[in-house]
Amino acid sequence: MSQPLFNKVAFIGLGLIGSSLARVIIAENLAKQIVASTRSVKTLEDAKALGIISEGYSNPVDAVKDSDLIVLALPVRATQKILETIQHHILPNAIITDVGSTKGNVVEAAHAVYGAELPIGFVPGHPIAGAEHTGVHAGKVDLFANHKVILTPLPTSAPWAVEKLIRLWQAAKAEVICMDVEKHDEVLAHTSHLPHLMAFNLVEQLANREDNLDIFRYAAGGFRDFSRIAASDPQMWHDIFFANKKAILNAVDGFEQQLAQIRHLIETEDSNALMGLLGHAQAARQHFNHMLAKKPLMEKNNVTQQFTIQPGPKSFQGKFSVPGDKSVSHRSIMFGAIAEGTTHVTGFLEGEDALATLQAFRDMGVNIEGPKNGEVTIHGVGMHGLKAPKGELYMGNSGTSMRLLSGMLSAQKFDSVMTGDASLSKRPMERIAKPLRQMGAQIQTTGERGTPPVSITGNQNLQGIHYDLPMASAQVKSGILLAGLWAQGETSVTEPEPTRDHSERMLRAFGYEVKTEGNRISLQGGGKLVGTNIQVPSDISSAAFFMVGAAITEGSDVTLEAVGINPTRTGVIEILKQMGADLSVENERIAGGEPIADIRIKGSRTLKGIHMPEDQVPLAIDEFPALFIAAACAEGQTILTGAAELRVKESDRIQVMADGLKIMGIDCTPTDDGIIIEGKGKSGEWGAIFNGGEIESHHDHRIAMSFSMAGLRTSGEIKIVGTETVATSFPTFTQLSEQAGLNIQVSEA
Ligand code: S3P
């Protein structure tokens, strides 16, 4: 058996937090011995009886002797006295940490005892966890699970000491974050201390009114929600407010300013600005809901949801409107924001990716109303009206947001940083950074391998360039053209194959001249965009799952209404037709500058395997995961080549699909730039094709939705793990699937 992490751990104080951590150390076998010192003899006796400690001492000096980890788990104000007492009795390399909710004053207390040079083992910490009850009996081994623990290593702290503490808290299943002391106190002042102060203050304001009884009697849910935390321990908050005085006063100043602003807007009846402020706050709350919620949605590496589909005969029927096009939705916000005048958008995709773009522009000072039932109104600020965001711009799962914004942000008068979730953090950003640098942009990809975060120093002197795109990427093309809007002279790109042209079309709709000559697209910098109305068509990429579902299910008949059929997006229709699908494009019309149609598809004949045409690859680039499911159900072999780009999507879609297909009993061989799939279909037979099994989505919405469709032809249960990202592009996916006849059970992990 490996050596435990620590030899002897001494707790000074053993309340809820201390005794919970002690329980973790026992459960995970992290120390040979645990002792404690508290003022209460009863606590020590109880702790011994509970088996939490082997020895208890009233004098802390006895506890810390020979201990290699000392945890100060008592009120912060006692820190200095305890450190003075134990100072000359501890091992030279002992790790000393604490669990207090303010950190500046803990470090100050340490300096008061040790002078300038603090012990190398001293690493303050703050587990952000609590419970209704306190005391040694209230401790629980899972108190810290899925909670954050902030460590604030000091310049004097030894890396090995920090490392060991990280391992300790990770063993408690906490998410460990390191930040500096000032940052910690500032963050906590805003996110915890200020809200508590406001809750106490509001209750006090109402309690002081003569009619307070009436007010409390009639107060509804809003008051209850807001004031809940004013029922916390006054002594504790009194101590915290003093302990973190400087940062809290700053936070209060910020609050007063903000309050004055909203007061002014109400007083002057500035309806537009008030709507902007309230809408911004509401959206910020919704956008960051995943961070505030107990079960984070898009947070790094967190898998929070799974789909389960049971075997059994299924039908797949109906008429559906899938949500708005993701690519068009992103661009409607971006272009509306930098246009002059107002832009109205209908059919906007209220998925997390497009909302990340929307939030980014709100963070840059653009007043955006909605989205409400797919309607968004953007009050454009013009080409030079974007403002510096106050913090990092969080792009979630969205590569389109990050690459297109790279171009726009490179040309601004301010600096910016863009970050993303686990999937986006692995995606290549040099493909856009490189051409932008040729234009004079100062852009760094600060991740390990040319990956996010992307850090940009704004430069208002970009030069137009010509760029030969080495890969067929609409995102890179668009990012360069967008930078070109602000650049000197002409910016042009040639693409190796035509890719989606939504940027070109929409720029024209905003009155900006864009030339397309064969594979060469160009524009002149220095023009302006004029606000307009944008009607976002339904997303053919979302419709594709239902098209495949219908194509592989006997007797199915599905119509997808008002789907965008821009010719740069219709590869999936062409490929399914070549595979023999019974598919018709009906009622073609133009809406908002984009062609749309109803797509009807029936499960009337078995698909056949084909060599997928390479010229269709960029036109169906997002639909291949779904098409692989179709290929597995086809008769004969399907070969895909020329699709290496699939390896750098939200996941490596060739490998991840191949892994999943194999688990489900499909014979397939991934290649560098495609895949070979041995279809199991037989003409006229509609029985099960897939065995079922557990699939890992790798934070990729399209992987999750594609394998869901396999549920229409499975003999065993299909479990798809990590389906939370489906909300990035198709928030209504499971509801519409259910309506069509495919029951997907959604469970939160
Ligand atoms: C998109 C372009 C494509 C596509 C993505 C959306 C766009 O990416 O896969 O889902 O909106 O421009 P690439 O440019 O990387 O091919």
Automatic annotation (TrEMBL):
Q: Detail which positions bind 3-phosphoshikimate.
A: K326, S327, R331, S473, Q475, D622, K649
Q: Does the keyword Transferase apply?
A: yes
**A Pfam family of this chain:** PDH_C
**Keywords, in A-Z order:** Amino-acid biosynthesis, Aromatic amino acid biosynthesis, Cytoplasm, NAD, Oxidoreductase, Transferase, Tyrosine biosynthesis
Biological pathway: Metabolic intermediate biosynthesis; chorismate biosynthesis; chorismate from D-erythrose 4-phosphate and phosphoenolpyruvate: step 6/7; Amino-acid biosynthesis; L-tyrosine biosynthesis; (4-hydroxyphenyl)pyruvate from prephenate (NAD(+) route): step 1/1
- Identify the NCBIfam families for this entry: aroA, PRK14806.1
By sequence similarity, the record places it as follows: Belongs to the EPSP synthase family.
Read off the HAMAP family from this record: EPSP_synth
What protein is this chain from? Answer: 3-phosphoshikimate 1-carboxyvinyltransferase
Give the species. Acinetobacter shaoyimingii
